[in-house]
Specification:
It contains 6 helices and 7 strands; from the N terminus they run βαβαββααβββαα. The N and C termini lie close together (about 10 Å). It binds inosinic acid (IMP).
Length: about 190
């Protein structure tokens, strides 16, 4: 079983490959950019991206869209996490939270799957945690150095990819996708 994964993000690709390998699903990366729908809903963004990529490639494909939702900032940066990371980054987020005691945050991942001519389906995973006081750890990507998952003292970047992929938002979304894929697509 092999699926195409459209992403320009190598960090994501490594994780998705590792997670889906557990289900016997091989992942091949396609470096295809899709227009990011302006929407507050990660599901809508992933569904749109999956359909766009399936039509462009003429093959079944998955995409993944994720966001960091910070409680004290009313869910910011949420669906705008990529833009915010590229502009103010981890230091900017920490500055916005200076003196803030409520550090609660949640990562959400949505996997979108679509076949050419078909309707996209989406699978969501989430993990609660908190924002660290300072960046820590050298592994992973994006907000990993400032996100501490619930029940942990270490950030995702300190945990490393292996540990992160046992519990992450992306893992949960992909587990749901893999179960659906096995029942609905594989062996068709
Ligand atoms: P997008 O899903 O590519 O739109 O990514 C949203 C933003 O969140 C990007 O800046 C990513 O680097 C960041 N991001 C997504 N998933 C993770 C993660 O698992 N850890 C840390 N940062 C992430």
């Amino acid at each position: 079983m092999k699926v195409l994964f459209a992403t320009g993000n190598i960090g994501k690709y490594r994780e998705v490959k590792q997670i889906l390998a557990r289900y016997g699903i091989e992942v091949e990366r396609v470096d295809l950019d899709y227009p990011e729908l302006q929407s507050d809903s990660l599901e809508e963004i992933a569904a749109y991206g999956a359909r766009y990529c399936a039509e462009s490639l003429g093959q079944p494909v998955i995409v993944e869209d994720s966001g960091l939702f910070i409680e004290a900032l009313n869910g910011f940066p949420g669906p705008y996490s990529a833009y915010v990371f590229d502009t103010i980054g981890n230091e900017g987020i920490l500055k916005l939270l200076e003196g803030e005691e409520n550090r609660k945050a949640e990562f959400i991942s949505v996997v979108g799957y679509c076949e050419p001519g078909g309707r996209p389906v989406t699978f969501t995973g989430e993990i609660r945690g908190r924002i660290a006081e300072e960046p820590r750890g050298g592994e992973g990507f994006g907000y990993d150095p400032i996100f501490i998952p619930e029940g942990e003292d270490r950030t995702f970047a300190e945990l490393g990819v292996e540990e992160k992929c046992k519990i992450s938002h992306r893992t949960r979304a992909l587990e749901r996708f893999a179960e659906w894929y096995e029942n609905n697509v594989a062996g068709r």
